[in-house]
Amino acid sequence: MKTARVIPLVQQRPAGPLLPEHSPGTFADAAGLVRDQMARPLRDLRISVTDRCNFRCSYCMPKEVFDQHHRYLPQSDLLSFEEITRVAARFVELGVRKIRLTGGEPLLRRGIETLVAQLAALRTPQGEVLDLTLTTNGALLSRKAQALRDAGLQRITVSLDGLDDAVFRSMNDVDFPVAEVLQGIDAAVAAGLGPIKVNMVVKKGCNEGQILPMAQHFKGTGVALRFIEYMDVGSTNGWRMDEVLPSSEVLALLRSAHVLHPVAGTHSGETAERFVHAGALGQADATLGEIGLISSVTRAFCADCNRARLSTDGRLFLCLFASQGIDLRALLRQGASNEALRQAVASAWYGRDDRYSELRSQLPTAHAPSGQRIEMSYIGG
Ligand code: SF4
Question: Is 302 in the pocket of ligand 1 (CB under 6 A)?
Fold first, then answer.
């Protein structure tokens, strides 16, 4: 039997420091900001607040794996809101300017508004407000939108994998109706949680027929619609390259029905290639809403990835495709000082050289490279 060739997905770094010297033990530069081994700043923190979800999307939490026997993290393992806020404050001191709440499904975490209010009160060392957002499957959004806004949430991203009710129900695999998610989006718009982003994961053979209906539905609504390539996240979704519809083909399909103008990125670390619709005279018209393509498989964006991830049980992960994390909860519960927490985060980030998608794209891969990667339902997208 041909043994699988294991290719190490670690960067063969040249010897010697890549970055300007930093004062011993601080890992941060003169401005107090920390950069990793590829000089990427720590800018974006994704916090998973629960490993539970009320959907069973096959590309993230396949039902046959996450079945009635699946054991979720016990409550005592989860970081409390106070612990999350204390850790998040250290990240902000080191350069984080954007916090995204994820899951599982974050709106399942009881009292999530309380956490939102605590995080919304954080300020940068310069006294600035953070960009505080949340990603949800929208199932509970119509009930929660206003309370989240009142608590200080600024924006929201809704995952929606199709408009056709039958396709949507098969994608979430719990027979949840699309109408309720669309009502949730309307409630978020009414609550002022805009600009709303809608993310659609495209899985070939499942929902690519929804690309044009989604683009038409959200055109003119001001919603930014993003199409995400199906990724080999975790180790349970049975990922195959032939189920990936490359963004280049998604764009070609969109352009068969719409005139789209490319838009320049606004900041480093942006994951989407952005386009706006043409207006009546053919000019770029941002008021008609945006279309984005997130191409982790065919056009990796690791070069300026500035995202760290905190799991719901307090582990720091440096990449969506990581297999190991740094246990910050242990430090917290051992009574570590804020300085010790900051050092732990700074040294982890300083030593980071992750670029999984970039390395994967150099592999002739039909199936996911081997290795036990963390589940997206545990760490958030
Ligand atoms: S694969 Fe890892 S390093 Fe690359 S963009 Fe994704 S999270 Fe960042």
Answer: yes
